């Protein structure tokens, strides 16, 4: 466990609402979600939009197989036809998004190397300029690819359902209501999200 993980774990163990969940799930396992590089993480985040984790993994593995050796290569992604991309299970919108992402990387509209050193807000602003990448996808990249510790996707339905359970709320909080509820876990809200998702997955 790296030092950031240890600090986050110590912080969450002190929170009465999170203590039992942390004890049940165990240490955070962010390394399980990390792909070979940032482009691969972005591609998987696009594939995962509005899909279960299991279905998303199947489609991503098909996309990876289609890409062949050296995946992910933005130039080769652009060489595939729409029909080939849709055949792996991608929707029309996700096909367009992956094409725009590959073009953005090739042309320099999106500098992946520069993202590592940018603040969270600037990373999100850069990513959402790509067609089909919205705040949710940008947040997933910040949490799982860039390992930013304090990201809070308040609009995520799983997070809001878990908040209702763990905080014993009378109703499902709206995104605007969920936003301040994460303040109790600063500066490790990304970790709180991960544990809340584990709760919803039966962890």
| Backbone shape | elongated
State the helical fraction. 55-70%
Q: Let me know the average pLDDT.
A: 93
Q: How many structural domains can be distinguished in the coordinates? A: 2
Cα Rg? 18 Å
Second CATH tier, the architecture of the largest domain: Orthogonal Bundle
Q: Give the low-pLDDT segments.
A: none
% residues in beta strands: under 5%
CATH homologous superfamily designation of the largest domain: Hypothetical protein, domain 2
Kindly report how far apart the N and C termini lie: 19 Å
Could you explain how this protein is built, in words?
With 203 residues, the protein is mostly helical. The chain folds into two domains: 3-29 and 151-200, Orthogonal Bundle (Endonuclease Iii, domain 2), CATH 1.10.1670.40; 35-145, Hypothetical protein, domain 2 (Endonuclease III, domain 1). The chain has helices spanning 3-13, 19-25, 38-48, 53-67, 74-79, 82-87, 92-107, 112-115, 120-127, 135-145, 157-166, 175-181, 189-200. α3 (38-48) crosses α10 (135-145). The longest helix has 16 residues, at 92-107. It is elongated, with a radius of gyration of 18 Å.
Brief characterization of the structure:
With about 200 residues, the protein is an all-alpha fold.
Overview features:
about 200 residues, mainly alpha, Endonuclease Iii, domain 2, Endonuclease III, domain 1, about 0% strand
SSE blueprint and pairings:
Elements: H1 3-13, H2 19-25, H3 38-48, H4 53-67, H5 74-79, H6 82-87, H7 92-107, H8 112-115, H9 120-127, H10 135-145, H11 157-166, H12 175-181, H13 189-200
